[in-house]
Amino acid sequence: MHARADPDADRADVPQELHRARVCLLLHQHGWSPQIPARRVVQRDDEAVATWVSV
Questions:
Q1: Residue 49 reports pLDDT greater than 80
Q2: CA angle, corner 34, sides to 28 and 39, nearest 5?
């Protein structure tokens, strides 16, 4: 006898693509906002960024 699989477990492995407007809506529903930099900073420490991203 096999245990029944959780129907939601299969969906967790399937990536979903969301439209930009839908992402904004989801962010606002949770009290967040999309933060898009207007420009790249002049003084940037690429080593610090790489360390931060790898964490």
A1: yes
A2: 160
